[in-house]
Recover the amino acids of this structure.
């Protein structure tokens, strides 16, 4: 029993050490965003020749949202002769196919791809479209997103820089006021983009390509092997592969796009679990390559490793809690690490983009969302929920690794607004 | 009209980038390292006050719990415990004794609660998870006592643990809060108040909570002890920090909104 207690004590200290490293990292990001010189995106290059762009919208049973995203893309101010839209109808069983067909008949630059066999899911759909795209720059939007008029132009400008392999815009939930859950997600998103992504971009670290409201160079993606149809986090996968190959990810904070955040707990739980499963799979695949990457500076390697571990941290916290419980049963709980442990639990309750409370506070302050600042303590209510969802995903990834099984894509359910109602 | 011309001239003089408030994506706030360093004297002042007042606060905590136990008819016997430079005065107190049947019943009830809230989808998930975590802690503690005979902490050790935890919280809390405060555009007074108020708030919280724990354990027995300490102990201290933090931030945000010049282009 003494050995078990000793191991548990050491483990609790390790957990506190890991959390302290992340606290320092995010404290640095917040300081950088609030107090240091900011690095603008390429938005000032308004006179540059606009390159051709292929806009890809993967869809599976999206009849409630497909009108909105296609209407928004049609209304964008990008020259019509320099872009095409490829809606990928991924095995839909509702009216998505019919709706997409009608749009294609009306607008010749909409060139749908219908997937009727083979693998399902977003990575498979993207892999399918790579050889079909007419342009080298590919932008991706999920079907529930509503890009603004100037968004395509803003995102595409980043590719003027020949070192940029992918770009990422800012995701903003448009249904933030729907309920408690969507409000909390809006806050997580703010912290993740307004502070975290911008700071990583400022510091020349590795901003994350998020799989939507962003894009990549087609040829580079193909050179890197395309998309694994069984990856659940194809965005993390591509971000890391680009970084390892020496490409940079540009972050456009001004390029805001509006999404429908999950409004039901069960839907959000499945989404987080899928992200975690995919991200942890990427951790297993790329950890050692990231640690040894010659194309990266030591700061980028450290940030890359911490980025890969992000979705494992809730599981580490949970096991730390279990170790504390065991030590309490045995009458050997160490008080100092427990105090810091409690502090980390409360401040790291926003795992969506892994923004601690002060990072989210800084984002809301920058956004001018004064009233939302009072919601900060409620993030604690999400601790167990987010922690459990992410830990379940981590366990799934571990199971995948042990059994050699392939993950099945689980689409996030969207409600949308029927046409003519909004 | 004159005023608008004057404003236009002012705008021209200031230049477009200064005259137009930046979109949120281009904003920065003028947080300066020199401002952040002001947190250090504020922290030092609060720490000095804390170091000198902790013995009094710890004594108040012990006395209140002894008094509360006395009022409730719980037999309590204080004893001396020197912790650094502080006399803590923890106590032994009579706890409800659980026989093996009540321990098994407790574990069974907790298992049923976990099962019910795992399958009953109606309540929001965070609430279900929180109830389940409490039930799992209580149930596993009951089983541990059933098999091992007792928990690692008796009433005296628990009392000692609570007092030591409170003392360490009061001494470390200002450092954590200072790290928060250093990031934001607070004035020196706000930094001092923010750090001071969190410690001041935590003192009555710790005192009342300790007395409440003694009262609960005296009635229900030790199976609740891990749950009380791990979920309603230091964890509960951290929640008000964020609450007080958010209130101070709203004040800072109001000031920023009143003075548009605070917003700077990135």
């Amino acid at each position: 029993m003494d050995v078990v207690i000793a191991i548990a004590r050491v483990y609790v200290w390790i957990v506190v050490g890991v959390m302290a490293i992340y606290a320092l990292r995010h404290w640095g990001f917040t300081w950088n965003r609030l107090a240091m010189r900011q690095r603008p995106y390429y938005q000032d290059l308004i006179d540059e020749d606009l390159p051709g762009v292929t806009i890809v919208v993967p869809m599976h049973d999206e009849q409630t949202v497909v009108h909105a995203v296609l209407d928004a893309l049609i209304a964008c101010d990008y020259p019509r002769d320099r872009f095409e839209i490829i809606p990928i109808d991924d095995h839909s069983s509702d009216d998505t196919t019919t709706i997409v067909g009608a749009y294609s008949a009306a607008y010749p630059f909409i060139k749908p791809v219908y997937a009727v066999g083979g693998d399902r899911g977003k990575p498979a759909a993207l892999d399918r479209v790579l050889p079909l795209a007419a342009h080298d720059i590919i932008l991706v939007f999920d079907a529930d997103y509503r890009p603004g008029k100037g968004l395509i132009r803003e995102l595409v400008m980043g590719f003027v820089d020949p070192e940029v392999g992918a770009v990422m815009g800012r995701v903003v939930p448009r249904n933030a006021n729907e309920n408690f859950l969507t409000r909390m997600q809006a806050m997580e998103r703010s912290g993740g983009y307004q502070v975290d992504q911008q700071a990583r971009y400022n510091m020349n670290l590795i901003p994350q390509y998020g799989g939507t409201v962003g894009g990549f160079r087609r040829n580079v993606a193909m050179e890197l092997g395309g998309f694994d149809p069984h990856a659940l986090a194809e965005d993390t996968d591509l971000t890391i592969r680009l970084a390892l190959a020496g490409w940079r990810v540009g972050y456009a904070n001004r390029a805001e796009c509006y999404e429908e955040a999950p409004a039901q707990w069960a839907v959000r739980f499945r989404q987080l679990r899928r992200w975690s499963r995919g991200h942890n799979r990427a951790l297993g695949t790329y950890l050692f390559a990231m640690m040894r990457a010659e194309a990266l500076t030591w700061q980028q390697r450290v940030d890359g490793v911490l980025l890969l571990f992000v979705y494992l941290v809730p599981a580490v916290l949970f096991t730390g809690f279990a170790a504390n419980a065991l030590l309490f049963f045995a009458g050997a709980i160490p008080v100092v690490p427990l105090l810091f442990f409690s502090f980390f639990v409360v401040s790291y309750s926003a795992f969506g983009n892994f923004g601690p409370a002060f990072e989210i506070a800084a984002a809301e302050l920058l956004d001018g969302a004064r009233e939302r600042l009072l919601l900060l303590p409620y993030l604690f209510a999400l601790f167990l929920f987010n922690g459990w969802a992410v830990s379940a995903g981590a366990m799934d990834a571990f199971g995948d690794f042990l059994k050699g099984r392939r993950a099945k894509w689980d689409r996030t359910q969207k409600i949308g607004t029927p046409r003519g109602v909004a | 009209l004159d005023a608008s011309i004057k404003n236009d001239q002012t705008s021209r003089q200031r230049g477009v980038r200064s005259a137009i408030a930046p979109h949120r994506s281009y904003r920065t706030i003028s947080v300066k390292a020199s401002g952040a360093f002001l947190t250090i004297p504020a922290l030092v002042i609060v720490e000095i006050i804390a170091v000198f007042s902790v013995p009094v606060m710890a004594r108040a905590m012990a006395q209140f719990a002894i008094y509360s136990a006395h009022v409730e008819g719980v037999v309590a016997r204080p004893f001396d415990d020197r912790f650094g430079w502080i006399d803590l005065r923890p106590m032994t107190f009579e706890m409800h004794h659980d026989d093996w049947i009540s321990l098994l019943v407790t574990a069974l009830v907790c298992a049923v609660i976990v099962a019910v809230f795992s399958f009953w989808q109606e309540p929001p998930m965070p609430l279900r998870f929180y109830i389940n975590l409490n039930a799992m802690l209580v149930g596993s503690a009951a089983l541990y006592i059933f098999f091992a005979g007792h928990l690692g902490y008796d009433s005296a050790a628990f009392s000692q643990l609570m007092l030591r935890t409170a003392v360490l919280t009061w001494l470390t809390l200002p450092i954590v809060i200072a790290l928060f405060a250093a990031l934001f555009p607070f004035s020196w007074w706000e930094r001092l108040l923010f750090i001071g108020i969190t410690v001041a708030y935590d003192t009555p919280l710790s005192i009342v909570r300790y007395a409440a724990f003694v009262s609960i354990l005296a009635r229900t027995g030790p199976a609740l002890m891990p749950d009380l300490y791990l979920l309603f102990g230091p964890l509960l201290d951290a929640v008000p920090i964020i609450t007080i933090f958010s209130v101070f931030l709203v004040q800072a945000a109001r000031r920023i909104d009143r003075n548009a010049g605070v917003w700077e282009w990135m």
Summary: The longest strand of chain B covers residues 27-29. The radius of gyration of chain B is 26 Å.
